[in-house]
Amino acid sequence: MATPLDDSSTPAAGDQTAIARQAILDANRNVIAYELYDRSRKFAEHSAASDAEMLFNVLSHAELQPLMGRKLMYINCTHESLSGKHLELIHPERVVLEVPPVPDHSAAEIEARITAMEAVKARGFRLAFGHQTLARQYAAWLPLASFIKIDLQKVPADKLEALVRFAGKSTTARVIAEKVETLEQYELAARVGIKLFQGYWFATPILVRGQTLRPGQANIIQLINLIKKPAEVGEIEEILKRDPTLSFNLLRFINSAGFGLNVEISSFRHAVMMLGLQKLFRWAALLMTTSRMGDTAPAVGKMAVVRGRLMELLVTELLPPELADDAFVVGIFSLLDTMLGLPMEQALASISLSTHVTDALLHRKGMYAPFLDLTLACESAQDEAFARTATQLQLSNHQVNWAHLQALAWAENMDAS
Asked: At residue 394, does pLDDT exceed 80?
């Protein structure tokens, strides 16, 4: 059960920087990096000042470290910020600077920017350019590129292969397909040789006709259903005995130092009795989310864990504490369709959940719906949706962002354990 956020240990609301992230994945859909962006709107526009403040906050405050985990950081910057003194304070090996094209693609401006980019590259920073730099006038920039990002919302599908081929001939940079929002876009990008991807499609379902649950998944779902009945301890024990992986994970979890027991648990019945049905349910939900299922990207499981924890923290701010468990379930199962490769209605049909949970997941209504909307807004760069949902719940930008950071930290700690 979550505890209310302690504002006494957090930065003052007026000193708040709201930072979000989006994953960059490899061909196996493993997260290799995060792009960070500022959602605080402290500055009227993207500038050298806003670049310096965001990078300073990310690198200076321990509570922001979960935004990065152990991955590369991609940070958008202006040309002016490339000469900023703030870059001298950081180690460059984990930072990729995303550099925009110049206004109006002026030949004189393109030439004038090369010196500053050469200087940061010489210090060890990697540079990422947009696909616009594959145009002839940017030829002098291309040797500086470590990454080229191709926006699939702007490049026509029939031009993509030629553009990727040109990038391969003109630069040693790795190509990233960004704004991948459909299966068709992902498959096209992979087919033409792109091996790095970024976009919201990686949190959407992969539907496979006639797919059945693998035995491990089926046992987790059956365990969840027995807990929700609730069933007798003996019935739950039988499920654990049937699946060695399931039982091993449970005993490893309950015997871990983090669980805080002074006595070692050696039997399944003892484990169930010590853990209790409520915690056992949460453990099973987390196991379903963090276990690799079929072709589901590891990023999806991490995202679901963050959603669950964030929902729990947000609900605890406004509603009675006993409602936080269902809020956790709403968040963590909001990607259940993706994890099982089934439509949400069909995925939920296999699990016994409360009406409040299913109403939020299927119909976006009920007490948890606005919290889910806010949680989803935290993952995107859609400032209006974030502001609207936070205002609806009467939560400050500071409260939401601090809860998001705590959720990210919790998910990173789980991944490291």
From this structure: yes
The residues near 244 (Cβ < 8 Å, ≥ 6 apart) are none
Residue 200: how many CA atoms within 13 Å on its side-chain side? 8
Q: Which residues contact 370 (CB under 8 A, 6 or more apart)?
A: 389, 392, 393
- Comparing 269 with 97, which gets the higher pLDDT? 97
DSSP 102: P
For residue 50, count other CB atoms closer than 10 A to its CB: 21
| Mean pLDDT to the nearest integer, 39-67 | 53
Peptide linkage before 244 cis (omega within 30 of 0): no
35 contact partners, CB below 8 Å, separation of at least 6:
21, 22, 24, 73, 74, 75, 76, 98, 198
Token digits of residue 243: 């699946």
**Within a 10 A sphere around the Cβ of 95, how many other Cβ atoms?**
22
Q: What is the DSSP string of 318-383?
A: HS-GGGHHHHHHHHHTTTHHHHHTS-HHHHHHTS---HHHHIIIIIS-STTHHHHHHHHHHTSS-H
Residue 386 has pLDDT above 80, yes or no: yes
192-196, 271-275, 332-336: lowest mean pLDDT where?
271-275
How is residue 255 written in tokens? 């015997």
Are 327 and 368 in contact by the 8 Å Cβ rule? The answer is: yes
Around Cβ 247, how many Cβ atoms within 10 Å?
17
Q: Residue range 377-389: average pLDDT?
A: 79
Q: Is 167 helix (H, G, I), strand (E, B) or coil?
A: helix
Which band of pLDDT confidence, cut at 50, 70 and 90, is reported for residue 270?
A: confident
**pLDDT tens for each residue of 252-264:** 666 654 455 556 5
Encoded tokens for 179: 């704004």
Q: What is the token pair recorded at 353?
A: 């959940």
Tell which residue, 305, 316, 327, 307, has the closest CA to residue 377: 307
Give the pair of three-digit tokens for residue 308. Answer: 């669950």
Tell me which residue of 350, 326, 343 sits closest to 222, measured CA to CA. Answer: 350
Alpha-carbon distance 137 to 381, whole Å?
Answer: 31
Reported as a single tens digit per residue, the pLDDT across 5-27 is 333 333 333 344 556 778 888 88
Cα gap 255→328, rounded to integer Å = 23
Report whether 95 contacts 112 (CB < 8 A): no
- Answer yes or no: is pLDDT of 193 > 60: yes
Count of CA atoms in the C-beta half-sphere (13 A) of 324: 17
